[in-house]
Design goal:
With 268 residues, the chain is mainly β. It has five helices and twelve strands. The protein starts with 44 loop residues before the first helix and ends with a helix.
């Protein structure tokens, strides 16, 4: 089973990614807040997980997301209203490498697609340039826009709220089960795939790690084999809280206006 059924038109839609976004040091060392004591981590395991996502809402961090057919990384920098992500997705028959840069109110996308020779206008999609996007043409194209009022690419707050039971296994380490039917609005969860899991979706094993300040460092969910597929895991990682850098616009010489084929691809 492939948890996200990556089609040509939906590869980017998962990115915010499920803007999406190869572990970018997802479990790396995060800088401590200068001049302030680390907040107390709740003793209750469930409360500790719920509290671990609060720092994400500030929109200043790096992140990674991995799955069976997805390997992505990126960062969000709310102070400058910017974000950036790179993603590799696909399988033996089809693959897409993509980079998206967001600097409000602009965004750019650069793609390399292989195994999609039948896609009209493929040469324009594979231009080797950053395509500047007309924001009026991407309304509803989830993979091409970025909502700076909801900056968490994975939806970890919704995921932690869907935890059924959890135990602390070591300092900063937790494990338990999660009910994904209660987190279908999370960025890294596909509602159709949850339905394929059936009753098993209500009791999936997970592991979570928090840093020394109680902030979520990684969340890994184990998925069973379904429909002749293989078991897999979904993982999101966060790092460099408060230390992300602003995104930079691509050099003008490397930019073209997005083609009609680009909008058609992502608006499907």
């Amino acid at each position: 089973m492939t948890f996200r059924r990556w089609g040509v038109a939906t590869l980017a839609a998962v990115a915010l990614f499920t803007p999406a976004l190869t572990a970018c040091g997802g479990e790396g060392t995060e800088p401590e807040a200068s001049g302030s004591a680390a907040p107390a981590i709740p003793a209750d395991a469930k409360e500790a997980l719920l509290a671990s996502t609060k720092e994400i809402t500030k929109g200043n961090f790096k992140f990674s997301m991995t799955g069976a057919d997805l390997d992505g990384q990126g960062f969000v920098h709310q102070p400058s209203q910017s974000a950036q992500m790179t993603m590799k997705a696909g399988n033996d028959e089809f693959s897409m490498d993509m980079e998206i840069v967001y600097i409000k109110p602009d965004s750019w996308v650069k793609m390399t697609i292989e195994g999609a020779e039948g896609v009209p206008g493929l040469e324009k999609l594979n231009s080797g340039k950053y395509q500047h996007l007309d924001q009026s043409k991407i309304t509803g194209a989830r993979g091409l826009g970025f909502d700076f009022t909801d900056v968490d690419p994975a939806g970890s707050e919704a995921l932690t709220k869907a935890v059924v039971d959890v135990q602390k296994t070591a300092e900063g380490a937790y494990s338990g089960t999660i009910d994904l039917t209660k987190a279908t609005g999370a960025g890294m969860v596909d509602e159709d795939a949850v339905k394929l899991l059936g009753a098993e979706a209500t009791k999936l094993p997970f592991e979570a790690k928090l840093d020394t300040q109680g902030r979520l460092s990684s969340l890994t969910i184990q998925l069973p084999a379904v429909g002749g597929g293989k078991a897999q895991e979904l993982k999101v990682g966060y790092s460099d809280y408060g230390a992300a850098s602003p995104a930079k616009a691509p050099p003008a010489a490397e930019v073209v206006e997005a083609s009609p084929e680009t909008y058609e691809l992502f608006n499907k």
